[in-house]
Fold each of these.
Amino acid sequence: MTVKISVLVSGRGTNLQSVIDAIENGEIENAEIACVISDKKEAYALERAEKHGIEGIYIDPKSCACRQEFDDILLGILKEKGSDLVLLAGYLRIISDSLIEEYRNRIINIHPSLLPSFKGLNAQRQAIEYGVKYTGCTVHFVEPDLDAGPIIMQKVIPVLDGDTADTLAKRLLIEENKAYREAVKLFVDGKLEVNGRIVKIKE
Ligand code: GRF
């Protein structure tokens, strides 16, 4: 069976690209990207989708009276596309509880810190300002609480003397892109077992 993936984006889309490449080069088998959905018209991620013949859909937040209305439209599209898995890849909107409920343990996000440290925006800056010696990225299932869902995978990198939020973010992005495609492969291969907060990777 082919796993249909829908990807939600707001920006440049390097994590989207990583998953596209892994599907195209056969690293991830039995999966296809059904569509890429953006809340930003100018998101470069939409161009990436187009270059690979993937449908890109823009939903204008201004056309919706509230978050729930936006997410109702989004949910309609996700269902229409037959999505089995939803990836948040630099998607900047908070997702409503009803959407999370509908796709429980089937929505995955990536965050640029070792959760539960440095939740929310500017995680790399938070890490620099806190003075940690190591940081990293976390791929996790999405729960209603922000950046708090069951952890699938983490990758760790050192914070170097002289690092700024920008230099750290750049080095971290390489690990993020790897972690995301590895985690998606585990999901697609049916190797993730979720028990409460604990995600077990089956042999
Ligand atoms: C990444 O740093 C990711 O961890 C965070 O948003 C950024 C998205 O980057 N959630 P990209 O759009 O995938 O390049």
Amino acid sequence: MFEKIAVVGAGTMGHGIAEVAALNGYVVFLCDISEEILREAIKKIEWSLRKMVEKGKLGNEELTLTLNRIRTTTSLEEAAKDSKLIIEAVPENLELKKGIFSRLDGMTHPETILGTNTSSLPISEIASVTSRPDKVIGIHFFNPPVIMPLVEIVCGDKTSKQTVDSVLTFIKTLGKQFIICRKDVPGFVVNRILEALIQEAAWIVHRGEASMLEVDSAVKYRAKLPMGLFELSDYVGIDVLYSAGKAIQDRDGGVIVSPLFEEYYKNGWYGKKSGKGFYTYTGDLWEKPKIPPELADKVNLEEIFAPAVNAAAWLLRNNVVDKEELDKAVILGLNFPEGILQMADKWGIDTLVQVLKIKRSKYGEYYKPDQLLEEMVANNRLGVKTRRGFYEYV
Ligand code: 3HC
């Protein structure tokens, strides 16, 4: 396996990926454009490792050893030298990523695997600027990488089986589980579903159908997601979700970014990291917004989740992933209490299709129910109530 790896980009995801790799014995070169960003990244890694020591998950000696395995540098050449695996985690800008991949291609051993942690940009296009598209692959971690159990592997058009196998072996050494997104579709599996869900929450608030706290309360206390959707947006970064959403929208219209997100993004209200997002923060990394449980009944979950189920149906119908892997993706990548297809079966496919039809008549074609959902209704595969939906029930 790889002894030394490089992580390019020391932001929210990059520092977390470096932390996970170092915790699992890898020497990691963490690279970014300024010493200040790198100092900040090490501070966050240290904070996270100390949290683990406090919780008894890590010893003090291991903390020191882990930190010692992380070297920081502003030189891409230094990071790339002798690394057989490089994971890029720079901001979601296709031209920026292509520039970095082109440089990496010229400065690394021809066998080096070039991975990207992009959340929605096309792997094949990033690979196209290199002389080794077979060794370019999506290695998509979830925030916080140190806690979230999933890594989503995304194949570009030319990614080789050998590259996939090597990366899977690496992922397993990190103690992570994986799903494979078979096609290079916008948003891949998890973010295509997540963006449909989060943007719908924001559309509902924008249209005045419910308040932000009502949506977050319903999602957290009734759907039992670990965080409200606005809380999660602040946590992941409104800038990150805005860019990923826009990339999906521009590529195939799989989501439509809401004006609410646009407004927050343009104002620089990125969430936790900027002190203000949908909630406000004092700077304590451990801080959580207060979401009143008594508001949980003010909005129907089907209204919030129907577009995400539609996105899931699109992924299944297009053979991007199968149903078990799709549900595994949201359980391990987003900490859902159960799969979104299992939830859909409980709500009823006919109910969800009806919700989509009403939204379509009011707000347009984006809400057109996927053909798969329409066929399920026509075939009485309505979910738990008819004992057949995405799954069979006895
Ligand atoms: N470092 C170390 N430990 C951490 C940590 C960190 N960064 N964050 C959380 N923890 C630990 C805590 O110490 C705690 O440990 P314990 O169980 O021993 O007490 C445990 O994790 C749970 O933390 P908390 O009790 O503080 O808080 P929660 O129970 O709310 O869990 C969470 C935090 C795991 C982040 C949970 O809220 C969650 O799962 N949220 C959803 C996260 C999610 O969906 N991520 C994916 C976003 S999409 C994405 O990243 C893709 C990108 O492309 C956009």
